[in-house]
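New here. Your pick:
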Amino acid sequence: MESAEIRRRWLRFFEERGHTVVPSASLIADDPTLLLVPAGTGPLQAVLPR
């Protein structure tokens, strides 16, 4: 089994249980208000309700 197949199965598992799959993003934030991107959560600002 290749890593791409493992990733597809992993994402499908969570999507089938109601989770939202979002595209991969850079750990370097485009947002100048963020000094650091803790745990890679900075890109989620665009998809999370405020």
In short: Helices lie at 3-15. The two ends are 40 Å apart (CA to CA). Residues 27 and 40 are 6 Å apart (CA to CA).
